[in-house]
Design brief:
By secondary structure, this protein is an alpha/beta fold. It folds into 2 domains: 128 residues, Rossmann fold; 229 residues, Rossmann fold. It has 14 helices and 13 strands. A hairpin with a 2-residue loop joins strand 8 and strand 9. Helix 6 crosses helix 14 and helix 8 packs across helix 10. It is globular, with a radius of gyration of 25 Å. About 2% of the residues have low confidence.
């Protein structure tokens, strides 16, 4: 029966002491080791000796465990999808672990009986006579969840903050993980309005005050000083729901000229490591530094212009520029029209398809069915 243990160098001796008497214990020091070693059918026990990173704790929360046994003082255990017990010393650990192994034995039997079909009533009666009531259950037919979003990375939405909002909300309902939406339009930030956020300042005490004390400015300032973003992320984001967080942008126009490309690149790289999906809403101006950084870092770039000749002419001209001068592939560049806007002198969908045959994926609205269709299209095209 499998047990996975997280520890650091200071608890290595404790880990080896536990493993000496329990050969099925496996040490996991990273998310990759977790993926490689996790055995679903064994419904493993999780033991945590020392504080994991937020990223690794989030990875733990994606898996099913019989129980978790954690050292007292470990944070973020509420994210785990199982009950957990705490210990202060090796004696307590051994006691908790023994109880967990009994529960694990029951869970393994349950998992096995749920995985087989027993159609003969005599077989069912025989199994029930051997095992206690509640262990055996007839296998129920389960329908796979449809329309789940399984890709990870950065999605860049250009020039349409309203679409960024409704798309992020739909995405947070379709993903088994966390989504962060970043307000990357440094001249016209709008996410506070879209999500009805009255206070744009963070709770972080800093030399950045007033309009400067927003999530993205605090994050950039901390990264420039070598501070890990992971250590204070909860202090600079706002939670719309458990799966959707917002990082507010720049509300002081005088800051615009001080942002540098390498800082913005570093910020997005760090955010990508902390969230399953990062949606970046940026200006349609491709000479804007945040726009260009987000286009390069994104696994897909979504442009959502109005259906009028002015907006579509602009998109028609910048697509080849991005392809030939910036090396952005056709597959990555996606165009749609978002029908929630009232466009003056709208161009027909047929005309847009003719104009942008390699990029246009159709018209969409914020209706539920349209959002599902959009999620599916985006997932297909993500690199």
């Amino acid at each position: 029966m499998q047990t996975l243990v997280y520890y650091d160098q200071y608890q290595k001796e404790d880990y080896e002491k536990l493993k000496a008497s329990n050969p099925n214990i496996i040490g996991i020091l990273s998310e990759e080791m977790l993926r490689k070693n996790y055995a679903r059918l064994e419904v493993p026990i999780l033991i945590i000796f020392s504080q994991p990173s937020l990223k690794l704790m989030h990875a733990f929360s994606k898996y099913e465990w019989t129980k978790a046994v954690v050292h007292i003082g470990i944070r973020h255990t509420d994210t785990l999808k199982c009950a957990h017990l705490t210990f202060e010393n090796h004696t307590q650990l051994e006691q908790h672990y023994e109880r967990c192994r009994l529960d694990q034995n029951v869970n393994i039997k349950k998992r096995y009986f749920e995985s087989i079909d027993l159609d003969d009533p005599l077989d069912v009666a025989f199994i029930k006579s051997i095992y206690p009531e509640g262990i055996f259950k007839r296998k129920a037919k389960k329908q796979l969840k449809k329309n789940r979003f399984v890709k990870t990375g950065i999605i860049t939405i250009v020039g349409n903050s309203e679409l960024a909002k409704v798309f992020s909300k739909a995405l947070s309902r379709a993903i088994d993980g966390r989504v962060l939406i970043v307000d990357g339009d440094f001249l016209k930030p709008s996410m506070a309005m879209h999500f009805s956020i009255n206070k744009i300042q963070t709770a972080v005490e800093s030399h950045l005050t007033g309009l400067d004390n927003t999530g993205i400015n605090i994050a950039l300032d901390a990264l420039s000083k070598g501070v890990s973003l992971e250590s204070f992320m909860d202090d600079v984001i706002l939670k719309v729901n458990p799966n959707l967080h917002v990082l507010l942008g720049n509300y002081n126009i005088y800051n615009y000229e001080h942002y540098e490309m390498h800082q913005l690149n570093h910020l997005l790289s760090q955010l990508k490591n902390l969230y399953d999906i990062v949606v970046v809403s940026v200006s349609e101006n491709i000479y804007d530094q945040m726009t260009m950084v987000s286009i390069h870092q994104g696994q897909i770039v979504i442009m959502a212009p109005d259906k009028n000749s002015v907006a579509l002419r602009y998109v028609y001209q910048i697509l080849p520029l991005l392809k030939h001068k910036q090396g952005i592939t056709d597959r990555k560049l996606t165009v749609l029209t978002f029908e929630n806007r009232n466009s003056y002198k709208s161009i027909s969908t047929t005309a847009i398809k003719t104009l942008l045959p390699n990029h246009y994926i159709g018209p969409f609205s914020n209706r539920k069915n349209d959002m599902r269709r959009l999620l599916s299209k985006v997932q297909e095209r993500m690199i």
